[in-house]
Amino acid sequence: MRSWSAPDIVPLPGTGGPLRVHDTATGRIRTTTPGPRAGMYACGITPYDAAHLGHAFTYLAFDLANRVWRDAGHDVNYVQNTTDIDDPLLERAAATGVDWRDLAHREIDVFREDMAALRIIPPTSYVGVVESVDLISDLAARIRGTGAAYEIDGDLYFSAAEATGLGEISHLDRDQMLELFGERGGDPGRTDKKDPLDWLLWRAERPGEPSWDSPLGRGRPGWHIECSAIALDRLGPAFDLNGGGSDLIFPHHEMGAAETRCATGGPNAHNHLHVGMVGLDGEKMSKSQGNLVFVSRLREQGVEPAVIRLAMLDHHYRTPWEWTDAELPRATARADRWRAALALGAAPEAAPVLAAVRAALAEDLDSPAALAAVDAWADTALGEGGTDTGAPALVRATVDTLLGVAL
Ligand code: 5CA
Ligand code: ZN
Question: pTM for the full model?
């Protein structure tokens, strides 16, 4: 599937240090150790509605990781899926009288525009589920071949009893797993399963639902297997960084990792990154809650994408936060102050700013600390002034390349 247009990346002097990120499985901040080409997978949108700030905040975190790795001299193989066939998409399409394919294409188009406007580096491979049905059903068949899956009326289930290491990422107990499984797309109430936690790999054709031929019969993929299969196909096993928002830790990433472990004998990824939820009015911003601030709506209202990006960068990716009316004025004031400092003919030295931004981002993507370093430079430049005539250009490049903010 077509990705979106890439922002220009201005080269910076020197190279940054290795990326360290919090890993959900170990609960520790760990140094990533990619080869020349780092591998990263982020769970993409289910395109039944436009992208909201929560989605954008998640992709911003992966974008920062991408930028830190590139700055450290790595190529990045970045893969993102889009869930262009799933229950919520079919339900919305039916409720609004739109063909599910048209709905998905329309929302993916808006998403691409939002991502490009926010200067999110596009995935190397942007992959839809519909175009991946063969490789997804192949992985499901491979899992069935190990004996870890069983069928009920043509539906194929992964048997939780056969899943080694279930709980290694989320560290939840069984009761917590059952509760979240029910809330997040699972079917613990289906009584003919061997265990309520058994999860769907392949859903047999139902009247009126789209379906595809496969070695498992006609049907469509379950949710978790789409990401395991696409990641395994594009990145291989044991890639560097896998993740999404923290709402995906369980069941999605736990069950996905179990699928890869079953098929390959090893882990899907070395590190698991999860982004805190963005809320509005005391609730997680979510399509099903309907409490949404759309990126596209803000852009239509004339809000500069750089300001939206600065507003999000003011929050550490792991900390859940609420979007309030104070966000945009604060980010606008910051952009104005930075622009005023960048317009000066001379300013304080920029090399320490570059070093501070690099260090902040390399240490668990600490964007608020990176913003603080630029703030301090701008305040001094505008207050006491400086004598370095090359400094504004270097700070501009730093902010552009590492933070993705073009001023
Ligand atoms: N298509 C699946 C992943 S395979 C999905 O979760 N789609 S989604 O449209 O619901 O979410 C897309 C991405 O945004 C996911 O990584 C999800 O974890 C993240 N996300 C959703 N809501 C929020 C929120 N309020 N704050 C932060 N991230 C969010
Ligand atoms: Zn996913």
Answer: 0.97
